[in-house]
């Protein structure tokens, strides 16, 4: 399924930090750091105010390079295979999720992370603002996983702990939705994004994770995507994602 490009936001005024993010220069936070460092100019004059209103006619440049304007916003769903890193780039040359999606010159970022030894649904986009909002704890975007556990089927006590919250080294987890699937598997939905959280939660109740697949991110599902496959999100799916962060 291929969706039509979203409007490119041309000639629409917005704050300088947001404009850089929309132009694919960097995330909003990184763009503001670049502005503060004096790397951004408007019509040839250095600007250190990220709240300055600009548009495609303002002549915004970064490190002396004139920007062409805001990129069209694109979002992809990808079935991340095992062994692939959920980063935009890796200094050691290891495969990353960005290398599995044709960027066509756009700078794509993964939304959230999946461990190298986990697989499943991950979203890629060049919309840095949306990516930051989707991963911000206050929006509580749900993520659902299918986990194959060791230690036999989890009993009522273990399931209750997962549902009520578990004290980990970085604090108490928020309540999770959990249901058993049989064959030592559970489906677990969390709203947090701590490092290796599902694995640590399950290990804490005596059931180490043997296999982990993310099957849902917010309203998006993995569906029929096979490992390494991707698809462009439809306009309806994009709007559903945006609605989660309003």
Task: Give a quick summary of the entry.
By secondary structure, the protein is an alpha+beta fold. The protein has helices spanning 16-22, 28-36, 128-134, 156-164, 197-204, 235-243, and strands at 14-15, 40-42, 45-46, 53-54, 60-62, 65-66, 75-80, 109-111, 119-125, 143-149, 167-168, 171-172, 177-182, 185-190, 209-217, 220-221, 230-232. Strands 7, 8, 9, 10, 13, 14, 15, 16 and 17 form a 9-stranded mixed beta sheet that branches. A 4-stranded antiparallel beta sheet has the order 3-2-5-6.
**End-to-end CA span:** 26 Å
Are there runs of 5+ residues with pLDDT below 50, and where? Answer: 1-10
**Number of helical elements:** 6
Number of domains: 3
CATH topology of the largest domain: Alpha-Beta Plaits
CATH architecture of the largest domain: 2-Layer Sandwich
**Beta-strand fraction estimate:** 25-35%
Q: Supply the CATH superfamily name of the largest domain.
A: Pseudouridine synthase I, catalytic domain, N-terminal subdomain
Strand and helix order: EHHEEEEEEEEHEHEEEEHEEEH
Structural class: alpha+beta
- How many beta-strand elements? 17
What is the gyration radius calculated from CA atoms?
A: 20 Å
Largest sheet: 9 strands, mixed
- The level of helicity is 10-25%
Which CATH top level class of the largest domain fits?
Alpha Beta
Shape: elongated
């Amino acid at each position: 399924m291929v969706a039509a490009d979203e409007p490119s936001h041309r000639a629409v005024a917005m704050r300088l930090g947001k404009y850089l993010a929309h132009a694919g220069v960097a995330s909003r936070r990184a763009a503001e750091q670049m502005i503060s460092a004096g790397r951004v100019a408007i019509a040839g004059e250095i600007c250190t105010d990220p709240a300055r209103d600009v548009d495609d006619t303002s002549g915004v440049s970064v490190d002396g390079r004139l920007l062409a304007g805001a990129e069209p916003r694109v979002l992809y769903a990808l079935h991340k295979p095992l062994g692939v890193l959920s980063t935009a780039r890796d200094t050691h040359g290891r495969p990353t999720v960005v290398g599995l999606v044709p960027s066509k010159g756009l700078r794509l970022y993964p939304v959230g992370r999946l461990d190298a030894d986990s697989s499943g649904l991950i979203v890629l986009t060049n919309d840095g603002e949306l990516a930051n909002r989707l991963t911000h704890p206050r929006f509580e975007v749900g993520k659902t996983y299918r986990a194959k556990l060791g230690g036999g089927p989890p009993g009522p006590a273990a399931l209750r702990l997962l549902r009520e919250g578990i004290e980990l080294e970085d604090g108490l987890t928020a309540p999770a939705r959990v249901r058993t699937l049989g064959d030592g598997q559970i489906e677990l939905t969390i709203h947090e994004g701590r490092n290796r959280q599902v694995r640590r939660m399950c290990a804490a109740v005596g059931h180490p994770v043997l296999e982990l697949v993310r099957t849902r991110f917010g309203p998006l599902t993995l569906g029929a995507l096979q490992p390494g496959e991707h698809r462009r999100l439809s306009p309806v799916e994009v709007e559903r994602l945006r609605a989660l962060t309003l």
